[in-house]
Every structure is written in C-alpha cells, then in structure tokens.
Write a structure and sequence with these properties.
heterodimer; A: 104 residues; mainly alpha; Helix Hairpins; 0% strand; elongated; B: 496 residues; two-stranded antiparallel ribbon; 20 helices; 2 strands; 1% strand
C-alpha cells in the first residue's frame, strides 16, 4: 500500500509548482494554469486524507469536498478566461507587466 | 435531522434573495432582443434585498439554530447578515442609476448583485469548511465579474483581472490550508475540528500550517498586509458602487468568517495565532496609512484607508478574551464586540464616503483631489456629509468611528497589549493628516476646482443622508448597537 505521506508529498510538489507559476510567470493564462495546479493539489490532499486519514472512509466528506472544488475550479476558469479576453480585446496583450494603468 | 421544507425556514431571507436573482434572469430571457428595463431590474433588486433585510431582522428574536447541518442562524451570523443586506441595499439605492448608465447587461449585473448578497449571507453563517469555501468562492467569483463589468473601460477590466488573479490564488491557498484541517481531524465541522484540536495535543503540528494558510486566504478578503496589493487597484478601477460594497459588506464577511474559524476551530491554540494577528495588524495599519498619505485620487486614498481600517478591526480579533476562567457576561469589552461595532459603524461611514465620491464623479467627471477642491462652494451638503464621514474615519468623538475604535482599542488595553494600542494610536494620528487634507481642500481651498454640472440623484442624496444619520446615531447614542453586538459576540465566545 502506498502510505499517506507519499500522496501529501506529491500534493505539496504540485502546489509548489502552481505557486511558482503564479509568482514567476507574467502571462495571465500561465498564472491561471498555476492556480489550477494549486486547486488540484488540494484535491489530492482531500482524497488522500479521506482514504487514509484519521477516520478513513467513514463518510464521504473528503470526496464530496473534492467534487465541489472541481466544480468551483471550472467556474473560476470560465470567469477568469472571460476577464482575460476582455482585457485582450482592449489592449491586445495579456502580459501582466503591461497592465499598468492602475498603480501608485 | 430531516432536511425538508420546514427545516429550511431559517434560510428564508436567503431564499427570497436567490429567487429574486433568478427572477431577474428569467425576466431578461423573456424580454426579447431589446432587453428588459434596467430600472425595473434595479427596483426588483431593491425589493428583494429589502425582503432579505426584513427577514434577517425578524429572525433576530429567535433562538440560535443550525439548519441543514451546515448553516448556523444565530445572533452572530445575523449581525453580519444585517450588515451585508444593509450595505447592498444602500449601495443599490444610491448607485443604481450610476451603474445603469454605464453597464451593458443590466439583468446580469443585478442578478449577480443579488447572488453576491446570498453568498455573503451564507459565508457569514457557515459552520462547515465546505460551505465556507464554496460561499467565499461564490462571493469572490461573482465579485470579479462585477468589478470588470464596465467592459469598454480599460481600468475596469484591468481591475477585474487583477482582482481575479490575486483572489483565486488566495482562495487556492486557503483551500490547501483547509485540507490540513480536515486531514488532521477527519471532520469538516468547525466545532468538531475545534474539539479534536483541543483534545489531541499531537495535532499541534498541523495547526501552524493550517492557520497560516487559512489566514492568507481570509487576509486577502479583508485586505490585511501583506495581501493587500489588489485593494487600491481594484477599488480605483471598479465602478464606485461596487467598490463601496467590496470595502464594507465583503470585508465584514471576511472578518466574520475569520472570527468563526479562528475561535471555533483554533480556539484552543489562541496563544499561537494572537501574536500573528497582532503583527499583521501593525503591519497593515502602517502600510495603509503611509501609502494613503501620498495619494492624489480619492478612491485610491479611501482604498488605502480601508486597508488601515482593516488593521484596526483585526486588533479586536487579536484581543479576544479567552473565555476559560472568565465569565463572559461580566466583560464589557471582549474584542469581538468591538469588531462588530466597528464593522457596523464602518458600514455607514464608508458607504457614505464612496457615495459622495460617486456623486462628485457624476458631477465633475472624476475622483481626483482636484475634483474635490472647493466642493463646499459647489455642493455644500455633499461637502458637509463628506466631512462627517472623514471625521468618523479618523475616529473623532460623537461619530461611529470613535465608538468602534474605543471598543477595539479598549479591548487591547484591557488585555495589556500596550504595544498594539500605542501603535494603533500613532496610526490614528497619521491618518488624521490625509483625511483632514481632503477636508481642507473641500472647505478652505481658494483655488477654483474642476467645473461641475447637475446635482446628485435623489437615491444618492437619500443614501448619503441615511449614512450621515447612521454615523451620528451610533456616535451619539450607541447603547443599542453595543447591546446588540454584546449578544452577538457572547454567543460565538461561549461556543469555544
């Protein structure tokens, strides 16, 4: 059996990759992908804790939570892409460094 | 417990508002190519928000109860819900005309507006990690849309995108923290998590990352340092009424959720998070006030001011009295009631201030300091109202801001956090500079300000008048609001 800690390590790795993309990339779409990775890291955690955690498989809390997160992530991407497109139509760029009308 | 129609009765206010939101969408699909009347949608929005507000006020008399396993309808959540509905209602009445002139899809806007109110009401009363996450995401995702709703305006879409990117990163981080709370205790219920953490000392290793990650997510919603970078950009770029509710209702909900999560789930390890909150508070106050000093746009200045105010508010949470061994009923300042009184006063103050800004924007076409120069000559009542709000933001006696600050700072002194109280007082002094410099521009500047035409609409006038009344009422005769906040805060504090 694969122990719980392995899942947590994978999740932490995925989360860090996501955080790196969010902080390091200047393209709005790449940042969006980073956010998706972070949410999926949380999903791995939830399902792993549900399967091997303190009260394994007694109820469906962890799984249901993961399903909700998937749904929310889809909604978030839909809105996010809409905002990116609206910026792109006005500016012809999605580079975050070029979005500097508001500052100070 | 069965989930049936009768057991959902405590949720009626939210159900009303959600039905209103759906109704607007249905009306729009049947309206044909022309699209429905935007004024009609605004009227529906106001009516359904009023229903929600009245429903929440009616519930005040009832006992605390848990509905559908996950929603706590109690004095604390009702206090927050009334703040939310009042803020949304005042903003809709005052800003409706302004928004209808500018947005392209009135039906979508107003139905999202109602949905946001529902989401905030649920977030304020959730006692379960799953509902907290879903409600906060619901609230945030809909807010991203409203912030970016002026599609032709470069600033609005930029503000929307920035808010989206910061916001979704913050909620992903919060979610990651929540998974640890779930993993360590095997439960999603806040009270059960709190019990598990209190009983099992071995779990302490999970508390630190969970607290930090969850605070990062909620700190973003309430714009605490170091997660406040989105605030000035978003507040400046968003339509002013949207800014008004983001800075009051959405922030109040953030603090309510923070209080609930910290007290119920992490109540036993308060020694761990109180210093963190205190540090964040000092950082936030200084960051907000020092940045506000050098602004030349009033919306941006108010954004930094709202960051600073968040720093004061979080002091109340840091100075929450631990109930073990202390009889809660004997304490007049338990920190949490200071936070609630502050939020209620801040609601009237900030909505009023933003509505004055909106009226000036409508009259003179912008919100820079130059548009406020000599406002007292052009629109004396607006200038006087703005002056009252600025006094309340500083915290001058006889205004709501003073009562809130008195209770929050009083709680920190009572707890002998003298350092925090001193830092807060220094910050109040700093903040007086930039608030009063706006007052000076409005009343004493001899320069000719930007030309202005027309007068503020009747809705804006009424709302500003209500806000002035609210600020002075809480400031001059606060016992009622204090009693009410005491009941609400005691309820939450007896739970942990």
């Amino acid at each position: 059996m694969v122990p719980l800690s392995w899942y947590l390590i994978v999740a932490a790795f995925v989360f860090c990759c996501g955080l790196y993309a969010v902080l390091g990339r200047r393209n709005a779409i790449a940042v969006l992908m980073g956010i998706e990775l972070m949410l999926n890291a949380a999903n791995i955690n939830l399902v792993a804790f549900w399967r091997y955690g303190v009260a394994p498989m007694q109820n469906l809390d962890g799984q249901i939570f993961a399903l909700f997160v998937i749904a929310v992530a889809a909604a978030e991407v839909a809105v996010g892409l809409a905002l990116v497109i609206s910026v792109y139509r006005n500016r012809r760029t999605v580079n975050l460094d070029d979005l500097n009308l508001l500052k100070g | 417990m069965e989930i049936g129609f009768t057991s959902l009765a405590p949720l009626l206010p939210e159900i009303f508002v959600a039905v209103g939101a759906l109704l607007i969408l249905i009306l729009d699909t049947t309206a044909g190519k022309q699209g429905g009347s935007s004024r009609g949608y605004l009227a529906l929005t106001v009516i359904f928000l009023l229903l929600g507000l009245v429903g929440a006020i009616v519930q005040l008399g009832g006992d605390a109860q848990t509905t559908a396993y996950v929603v706590d309808v109690d004095a604390f959540s009702l206090f927050t819900k009334i703040i939310v509905y009042t803020a949304m209602l005042l903003t809709a009445i005052a800003g409706g005309g302004y928004l209808n002139q500018r947005i392209s899809g009135a039906a979508e806007f107003w139905s999202s507006y109602l949905f946001i109110s529902v989401a905030m009401a649920f977030a304020a009363s959730a006692n379960n990690l799953l509902l907290i996450f879903v409600a906060i995401e619901f609230l945030s995702i809909t807010s991203y849309i409203l912030v970016g709703s002026l599609r032709e305006d470069l600033r609005s879409s930029e503000a929307g995108l920035k808010y989206f990117l910061y916001g979704s990163v913050a909620s992903a981080i919060m979610l990651y923290g929540m998974t640890f709370m779930y993993g360590a205790t095997g439960s999603l219920n806040l009270t059960a998590i709190g019990v598990a953490f209190a009983e099992n000392g071995e779990l302490n290793g999970a508390i630190v990352p969970a607290v930090i990650l969850v605070l990062a997510g909620l700190g973003f919603k309430t714009s605490l340092a170091p997660f406040f970078q989105w605030t000035p950009d978003t507040y400046e770029g968003a339509p002013t009424p949207v800014t008004a509710y983001l800075s009051t209702a959405s922030k109040a909900v953030g603090f309510a959720v923070m209080a609930r999560v910290l007290l119920l789930a992490f109540g036993s390890s308060s020694a761990l998070w109180v210093p963190v909150l205190g540090g964040l508070s000092v950082l936030t106050m200084f960051a907000g006030n020092l940045m506000a000093l050098r602004q030349t746009n009033i919306k941006r200045m108010l954004a930094y001011s709202s960051i600073a105010q968040a720093g004061y508010i979080v002091l109340g949470l840091a100075a929450v009295v631990n109930t073990s061994g202390v009889d809660v009923a004997t304490l007049s300042m338990n920190g949490l009631n200071g936070m609630l009184i502050y939020l209620m006063g801040y609601l009237f103050t900030n909505i009023g201030a933003f509505m004055v800004v909106m009226a000036v924007e409508n009259m003179s076409g912008g919100s820079d300091y130059s548009h406020f120069t000599g406002l007292a000559r052009r629109a004396p009542w607006l200038a006087i109202s703005m002056f009252v709000f600025l006094l309340s933001l500083v915290g001058i006696p006889l205004t709501a801001g003073f009562v809130g600050k008195f209770f929050v700072f009083g709680a920190t002194v009572q707890h002998q956090y003298y350092f925090l109280a001193a830092m807060a007082l220094i910050n109040v002094a700093i903040s007086a500079f930039y608030y009063m410099s706006v007052a000076r521009l409005m009343f004493f500047s001899t320069e000719e300000g930007a030309p202005s035409t027309g007068a503020p609409g009747i809705g804006a006038q009424a709302t500003v008048a209500i806000c002035v009344f609210g600020v002075l009422w809480i400031g001059i005769y606060p016992p009622m609001i204090i009693d009410w906040a005491n009941t609400a805060s005691r309820l939450l504090m007896t739970l942990f």
